[in-house]
Design goal:
The protein contains 2 helices and 56 strands. It is an all-beta fold. The longest helix is centred in the first third of the chain and has 5 residues.
């Protein structure tokens, strides 16, 4: 079904509707690395991934839900029977989640529910209609006992959700506040009600398994009699419970916050009385810095649970080929053999952590290439991230771009040991070629002069000239745009607290100079959820005579502003096109394929990037002209009712779509004197209201505030 959009001018926004045409994910552009096509190129990278199985589309094959602590982001992948395919439409169905997330069916209805952090265990019950998922809160915090104490879990931990005693309901294993003794919270649903659909718990053991995990990560058996006197306190453990031997009790794969490998703990007891009687350190021979976690996932669709591993420390962690895939080669139990390092990541554009992509023609061949800055790649010896620039060269044509990885150290910028390098290109010295300006963790912007001969690939050399130094900078994100239309690209910089700065380019030839015009440009401030910082990443574009400022944020929402000539800009949308790549990433916009529509690169905290295009072929939208203002909708914005005035004597069909063209609401009315549509159930954002009747089909935009 196509949505026919009328080109119109609305009272709340002076811009042509084409400039407001939403961006849609574009997976059609091919990316190659070392001779292999990256099937998940635009899926967006992985850092601290947590994995759960879920059948999104009801085809009987388990798909993959990924929660990544980097940016608290969600990635959804559909299994086609042979391999995983990127399926971002499902990610949008999940609510905002924090710290850790596991999916499990607690009530036995065949639908996965969400267990996550909320200063304890928060549970959201899942529901599915076709392949559309929704979640409602079942418990804000899980509690136990008659006095309803909160079940404790550290924000850094991964608990085990499993049926300990085999009675058919879901129990919890988690460590105590000190992080040494494992506690068993038994679900009493079957005992009390004869079914599994309740979340009623009691603490059945303060020392499940009769062992203690000491402060140095070692295991001591027969430890319950020791009590808790004098134990070393530490926080951070990941737990996977599974029955390795097939004897109907739960063994453990465990890792501590200071570990680089797993410990296997063998349960020598039984389902009613669990006792850890032996353990094996350096299980799987894993060496994953730092704080690994393991997840049972049938990643090859052979009907047997395999094992995926990933780091769980969001401060110091491996971020290169760090997702381990261990195939289960046992016929009736568990025996894990390493099949692949860099699982999924090798199929993605992934530059470590925090990706800052920009469009630029680095080799002057008339094709736009992609250069990506980053937070960096982790080095376990120095415990720091080393930043560099990655280059993907455009090997296609002006109409059909395709990209090939060239290097992770473009221009040898890795030698300077910058942190969080954000690239921006323009002709700073006015010599006819593109120079490079880099934002970083420091208060200085670093200038690299292009000293290459005319019409040859960039050759960048550090120039010690101080383009801009400001106490407002640090974690700075520069971009260039000719604001005052004097033929010189001015400098726009995001600074970590959430504001955007404007520096006018006052250069004269090779004499480079910039003057600070505003340290609170347009009164833009993108901080959300009471965060002290916003990490704004600006980019600007012009379309059909109107100018726009788009800003990525810490939370990953894209803010879109217009009326840039005013002292205070107009915020058009704070969740533009429903794009949310998890934040802490770059933005760059251009028309990469000369089709007259814009293409957007969005980086994220996981080290990956997404590609989004305005082209109607990706939005299922077609334009029709409207010559007379026959329709009026008000109020706009609205928080409850949308009133419609139309010259018609026939019934009116009203359909509301979100910016991705997804149906939200439809109704037909014959009451043409008082047409009111209740939109209070819609989420905040931009919508299209399609009205069929009168003299044709029309579409009006409105904002649900």
């Amino acid at each position: 079904m196509k949505i026919y959009i009328a080109i119109l001018f609305l009272c709340f926004c002076c811009a042509d509707i084409q400039a407001q045409l939403p961006f849609h994910a574009n997976f059609d552009v091919t990316v190659e690395k070392e001779g292999e096509i990256l099937d998940l190129a635009w899926a967006g990278g992985l850092d601290n991934a947590q994995f759960s199985e879920i059948d999104f589309d009801g085809d009987g094959i388990m798909d993959l839900f990924v929660f990544d602590k980097s940016g608290n982001s969600i990635l959804t992948l559909r299994h086609n029977g042979e391999k995983y395919e990127y399926a971002p439409q499902y990610a949008r169905m999940f609510p905002r989640l924090l710290d850790w997330v596991l999916l499990a069916d607690y009530d036995g209805d065949g639908v996965k529910d969400i267990f996550t952090d909320e200063n304890g265990f928060r549970v959201l019950k899942g529901a599915v209609d076709g392949d559309s998922w929704s979640f409602v809160e079942a418990k804000n915090r899980l509690r136990y006992g008659e006095d309803e104490k909160i079940i404790y879990i550290s924000q850094a931990d991964i608990p085990a959700l499993t049926d300990i005693e085999g009675d058919g309901d879901l129990d919890i294993l988690t460590f105590d506040v000190g992080g040494a003794y494992m506690q068993w919270y038994e679900n009493l649903s079957q005992d009390l009600y004869g079914h599994a659909d309740s979340l009623v718990f009691e603490k059945s053991s303060d020392c499940w398994g009769n062992f203690v995990e000491l402060g140095d990560g070692t295991i001591q058996l027969e430890a319950c009699e020791m009590g808790k006197k004098g134990k070393s306190v530490h926080a951070g453990s990941t737990i996977l419970a599974l029955d390795i031997e097939g004897d109907n009790d739960k063994d453990l794969i465990l890792a501590d916050v200071i570990d680089t490998s797993f410990t296997f703990l063998l349960n020598g007891g039984n389902a009613d009385s669990s006792v850890i009687t032996a353990f094996t350190q350096n299980y799987l021979n894993e060496d994953l810095f730092d704080f690994p976690a393991a997840y049972l996932i049938d990643f090859n669709n052979d009907g047997k649970k395999d094992l995926l591993t990933s780091p769980n420390d969001e401060i110091y962690y491996e971020n290169t080929n760090h997702i381990g895939a261990y195939k289960n080669v046992s016929d009736n139990g568990f025996e894990f053999v390493l099949e692949e390092e860099g699982f999924l990541i090798k199929e993605m554009i992934d530059v470590g952590s925090d990706a800052f992509p920009v469009w630029v023609d680095y080799n002057v061949d008339g094709l736009l290439d992609i250069v990506i800055g980053n937070k960096g790649y982790f080095n376990r010896d120095s415990l720091r991230f080393y930043s560099s620039l990655t280059l993907y060269e455009n090997m296609g044509t002006n109409e059909t771009p395709s990209f090939r990885w060239i290097t992770n150290n473009f221009a040898n910028l890795g030698q300077y040991n910058y942190a969080n390098i954000y690239p921006a290109f323009t002709d700073l010295d006015q010599d006819g070629d593109m120079d490079l300006l880099i934002g970083s963790k420091t208060e200085k912007l670093h200038y690299f002069e292009n000293i290459a001969d005319s019409n040859t690939p960039m050759e960048l050399e550090l120039n010690t000239f101080n383009v801009v130094t400001s106490p407002y900078l640090g974690f700075s994100t520069p971009t260039f745009f000719d604001i005052n239309e004097d033929g010189l690209d001015d400098l726009i910089v995001g600074e970590k607290l959430g504001r955007v700065l404007y520096y006018e380019n006052t250069s004269n030839g090779s004499n480079i100079s910039f003057e600070l015009i505003s340290d609170y440009w347009g009164e833009v401030d993108v901080r959300q959820f009471s965060e002290p910082v916003g990490f704004p990443v600006p980019t600007l574009f012009e379309q059909d005579g109107s100018r726009y400022l788009m800003v990525n944020t810490l939370e990953g929402n894209l803010f879109l502003y217009t009326d840039l000539e005013n002292e205070v800009f107009t915020l058009v949308d704070n969740n533009y096109s429903n794009i949310k790549e998890s934040g802490e990433g770059g933005l760059s916009i251009t028309d990469m394929d000369n089709d007259g529509y814009l293409d957007l690169l969005v980086g994220n905290a996981r080290g990956g990037i997404g590609l989004y295009s305005q082209n109607p072929m990706y939005n299922n939208i077609e334009f029709v002209e409207r010559t007379s203002p026959e329709i009026n909708i008000y109020p706009n914005p609205t928080d409850h009712f949308l009133h419609i005035e139309i010259a018609s004597s026939n019934p009116i069909n009203i359909t509301i779509y979100d910016v991705l063209g997804r149906l939200q609401k439809t109704e037909t009315t014959t009451n043409l004197t008082n047409i009111s549509v209740d939109v209070s159930a819609l989420e905040t954002g931009l919508y299209f209201c399609e009205i069929v009747g009168g003299n044709g089909r029309f579409v009006e935009r409105f904002f649900r505030e």
